[in-house]
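re: ur msg from earlier - yeah i can do the iron/sulfur cluster complex, just paste it... oh wait u already did. ok heres what im feeding in:
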Amino acid sequence: MAEPLFIDRTIRYDIVAHCNLSCCGCSRVAPFVSANITPLSQFKNDLIFVSKYVNFRTLRIIGGEPLLSKDICSYLKFAKDIKFAQSVSLFTNGALLEQQQDEFWRLIDKLYVSVYPILKDKLNLRSIKEKADNNSVELIVDYSNDFFEHVIDYPIPTGKMIRNIYVACKDKRFCNTIHNGVLFRCATAPYIDEYLNKIGYNANIRFLDGLRLEEARNMTAKIYSYLFSDTPLNCCQYCVGSTGRKLKHRMLSKQEMSNPKRTKTMENSLSKKALWFGIIEENFRVIINRNVHVKRLLKPLLYLRRKIFFKGGRSPF
Ligand code: SF4
Ligand code: SF4
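and the outut:
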């Protein structure tokens, strides 16, 4: 069998669908999905299957809130052993970090903690930092004060608008996700049915949008063309991706949780500025990628931008 194809991207594995917070604007609509933890056997099968065909730069264990799995170390241990990606990182809101055993800290390379205002005074970041340092874990702390509109509760009116939003959407590159035996191009796609059904649709688009991880001819080519496709997903009809308007971060009220239907319009969900910047950036990126020399010249600048974007002044360390 041929060597697996290396894809220079991060791939997420959502091991927990639900969350212990209920952020308004959660791109994964985690506050509205039923509690579900991917069985360890499914996680193992998926990684074994995909690693036969492709490898990634980073495997990101994420959720919902991944630390809601009491067996998190078994997932991390398997992910490290199988060498599915060059490194293994974990994303968390930090609420359950203090409860983790020493083994947890030994199994991760990189830890991202999104500190939301509701947890800001409750997290002991000094102690988290100490544990990370003692275990050579790269710690990235992000203070997430702003959120953005993402999933909307009415279909976007025109195909042209869906296409423009898709072109500008960064999630299709940064949020490729595996969840329970299916590969998805973004982190919204696995869960949108559950949200739409809660607000009165009879949606069944999850399997139209995902690529099932089961044996088929030319699987490497299938995975590659699925991940790099120019065609919007079906769920893009109900999502403004990374072009949503800014929202102040807050928890949803009990009433909003039980009745998520909102009365927003396209005008107050979409940021035109984010849309046009996104389209320009995407076109620019395509041109750079086609030209190897320009790409090489710009690489240090892009690296610097990524560092500043994730860390710049926002980490207390
Ligand atoms: S912590 Fe993350 S996954 Fe949980 S509700 Fe907030 S944004 Fe969604
Ligand atoms: S716009 Fe489409 S690709 Fe982007 S996050 Fe939404 S559903 Fe996913």
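cool cool. Residues 165-166, 169, 171-172, 185-186, 188-189, 232-233, 235-236, 239, 241 surround iron/sulfur cluster (ligand 2) (CB under 6 Å). ping me if u need the other ligands too
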